[in-house]
Amino acid sequence: MIYWSNENGEGSFQSKFFQDDEHKHRLSIYINDDKLKECAEKCVESFNNLTDSMIDEICTQLWENVKDEFTLLKISDVREILNYC
C-alpha cells in the first residue's frame, strides 16, 4: 500500500524488495496521474507479495546478468545486488 501524503502526488511505501540508502525499505514516489497511481499501487502490492525465495531468485538472476558487465564490490549475499538497483 502506498500512503499518499498530499495532493501533489507524493507518497511513500514499505517494501520487502526495494530499498534505498537513507530509509532502507521505505521509499518515496511522486505521481500526478490517477491512472499511474493505480498502477503504482498494484506494483507495490505485487512486489510485497513475493516470497523470500522468489526475491532471492530475482536477485540471483540480476547478479548473473550483470556480474561480467559491471565492476561491483564483492557481493556476499545476492540481495546486496538491490543496493545497485
Jot down its keywords.
single chain; 85 residues; alpha+beta; 2 helices
Task: Give me the secondary-structure topology.
Blueprint (H helix, E strand, L loop, with lengths): L1 E3 L5 E5 L11 E5 L3 H15 L3 H15 L19
Antiparallel strand pairs: 1-2, 2-3
Fraction of residues in H or I helices: 25-40%
Number of strand segments: 3
Order of helices and strands: EEEHH
Strand order of the largest sheet: 1-2-3
Radius of gyration computed on alpha carbons: 15 Å
- What class would the helix/strand composition place it in? alpha+beta
Q: What does the largest sheet look like?
A: 3 strands, antiparallel
Report strand %.
15-25%
Low-confidence stretches: none
For the residues shown, what is the average pLDDT?
Answer: 78
Tertiary shape? elongated
Q: Kindly, what is the distance between the CA atoms of the first and last residues, rounded to a whole number of angstroms?
A: 21 Å
DSSP summary: helix tally: 2
Account of the protein in words:
The model has no long low-confidence stretch (mean pLDDT about 80). The chain is α+β, with helices and mostly antiparallel strands. The protein starts with a strand and ends in a 19-residue tail after the last helix. Helices cover about 35% and strands about 15% of the residues. The protein has a three-stranded antiparallel β-sheet. It is elongated and about 45 Å long.
